[in-house]
Amino acid sequence: MLRLAGHCRRSIPTRILVNTCSCGQRREFAQLSDVFPTSHPSFSLLSKDVTILAQPNEFYKTLIDMVKRAKRRIFISSLYIGTEEVELIETLHRTLSTNPQLRLSLLLDLRRSTRPGPSTAHMLLPLLRAFPNRADVHLFKSPKLSGMMEKLVPRRFDEGWGTWHAKVYGVDEEVMFSGANLNTSYFTDRQDRYLHFANQPQLAEYCLAFLRLFSSYSFRLLPTSFTASTSTSFSPDEYNLEWASPSPCRSINASAERDILDLHSTSTSLSTPPSDSEPHDTHLRPIIQAGVFNIREEERVLPALMKALAEQGGTLDLTSGYFALHEPYQRALIDACLPTRILAAGPKANGFYGSRGLSGRIPEAYTLYEKRFWQKVRAAGLAGDEQGEGAVVRLEEWEREGWTYHAKGMWLWPASSSPSLDARPPPGPTTTLFGSTNLNSRSASLDTELSFFLSTTSPELRTRLGEEVDRLWRYGRVVDEREWGRGERRVRAGTRALLGVMGSMM
């Protein structure tokens, strides 16, 4: 038994999370299937088809190689493409030129991709002119900001009301998921997570269906040589943005919610059936979080999963480059007395560190979020003594010289007989959450997210998941009240006031 300290007096049984069936074959963490409805899509696959990349340059090389070998389709979803990514655009152009049957579909965020000056939209126009019948670019605009308010909010701040945040990088029957965007820093010195899946026709079809659905509620990017066919469009100097849906763009919420719910109820037909010849040992379940359309799958699943994990004596590793854990997740973690290690970006590893103006206060704001969360952990008796002994929850900050941190996700570990938070039973985690969510209130309510739960009984894949955890935590440093009491971590009154007004946008 692992007996927890402080206010958390419940004893947690050390029953393992991955049970063994009487037939001798292992089955996945039981509660994972319990927290999803039976109609939810599930994709079974072979662990040998999963590759976990470690570094940003590996992510970039894999992406370029995928584009080069595409034969039928390229489908990409991201927040934006950096205007300096000439090689990526040229590779897309060459591949389309050499494969007449190839089609390209891009779904990006409208506000981020149409910033004043050189923009993603401008950069993509040559592709659209060269391949008008085989290249499609759609730009999603969150309906959270509209009408007169949209006109009043400066362009520099309009992304605060929500973005298209899902990251999917696919060609033919292979898909790569990450939290990374398509910009130089994400290819060089901005740490994220990257999982590649080969030989997955059903998973690729699901991702295409997901992107087509949201493309139908997005603007289509067209060069000005094309004439917009609807009145719901606007035309900057070099391009038109044409509304793709027959529904007015200001009244899409109800129909979008219905269509998203239908996607998961109908996508069960795409789910991969078990294989008799080579039993599948790994399962994927998608999670859509689109608070602007009242789709809250992540909010429904995560608290229930945390409770189930604690009841089975497991432990949790959780990370976010923007750690401001959504309030329901905080409550679930603390109420369950769930042994948890958390890795957040240190101030210098925050992508806004050193920015001018209000953006420069963002790392400071996340210090305040950390501090407030830790106060709750301390009040619940989960922080241990002054040396951290007996801690049930531990908070660390990631910092690597010259790098920023953007990784996010969760790893669920089976029970251990050791009371140490660092006790991670071999061969590794049984389950991981990966994708675009930062696990904060912005992800829950404003951005549109796509994430996945992967569960496996493969010892080899579990080992690789454990190695992924070790790579990230290698740059972690334990923090508590003493760290935030240092002068350079002081949170100014202006930052506190700013959070009071705009806290949900963080």
UniProtKB/TrEMBL annotation:
SUPFAM superfamilies: Phospholipase D/nuclease (SSF56024). It is an enzyme of class 2 (transferase). Its EC number is 2.7.8.5. The keyword Nucleotide-binding applies. InterPro entries: PGS1. Pathway: Phospholipid metabolism; phosphatidylglycerol biosynthesis; phosphatidylglycerol from CDP-diacylglycerol: step 1/2. It catalyses: a CDP-1,2-diacyl-sn-glycerol + sn-glycerol 3-phosphate = a 1,2-diacyl-sn-glycero-3-phospho-(1'-sn-glycero-3'-phosphate) + CMP + H(+). GO terms for cellular component: mitochondrion. The keyword Transmembrane does not apply. CDD domains: PLDc_PGS1_euk_1 (cd09135), PLDc_PGS1_euk_2 (cd09137). Signal peptide: none annotated. GO terms for biological process: cardiolipin biosynthetic process. It comes from the Eukaryota. Keywords: ATP-binding, Lipid biosynthesis, Lipid metabolism, Mitochondrion, Nucleotide-binding, Phospholipid biosynthesis, Phospholipid metabolism, Repeat, Transferase. One of its GO terms (molecular function) is ATP binding. It is found in: Mitochondrion. Functions in the biosynthesis of the anionic phospholipids phosphatidylglycerol and cardiolipin. Belongs to the CDP-alcohol phosphatidyltransferase class-II family. This is CDP-diacylglycerol--glycerol-3-phosphate 3-phosphatidyltransferase. The lineage of its organism: Eukaryota, Fungi, Dikarya, Basidiomycota, Agaricomycotina.
